[in-house]
Protein: Nickel transport protein
Organism: Methanobrevibacter arboriphilus JCM 13429 = DSM 1125
Amino acid sequence: MHIPDGFIPLWQCAIYYVILIIAVYFASKWAKNNLDEKRIPLMAVLAAGIFAIMSMNMPIPFGTSGHMVGGALVAIVFMAPEAAVLVFTVVLILQALLFGDGGITALGANVLNMGVIGGSVGLFTFKGLKNYIGKYPAIGVAAWLATFISALACAVEMALAGTFPLVLGLTSMGIYHAFIGIIEAVLTIIVIMALEKFRPDLLAWNKRDYSNGGAD
């Protein structure tokens, strides 16, 4: 899902960078008001885990890659897509600089897909479904859908850039990430179950009501 340098024209990269700057601005304001000495280490641990799982790439035709993401996990744990924006901005910068995984010019697009879109789809899917199908099934669906939609967004951006045809991109990215999303759903449920069992105080939904009645 990482878009490398050179796959998007610079004028389009500039648009994605404007989106990135706006997203980071609001994410920074959120962090100032919501992160404390307990949750900063948790964010760092999640960032390290996401760095690791995203490094396990599966090549996809036409130059991009398939992998687990983790946007839903971060957004649900902190009950804020802003948390995913912060995590993915840092992780994607490090991956691009240290390993050439993704690109600096494409950073805005990559954060948009995995952080903004992935985090938002994951969180709002969870909040919309939890009262109907239960908390953990909702987490699983949210994690799967966040991965799948992020992949489709990547395909659309690559098509807009003229890198490869839209239908072929949607098909390739969609099929791969439909299966990858199942693994991500299971891992997301396991991580949140572990946090709820051993450190429930770190879960944002245990601190205040975020969605008309809490997360239960």
About this structure: The CA atoms of residues 135 and 216 lie 6 Å apart. Strands lie at 58-59, 65-66.
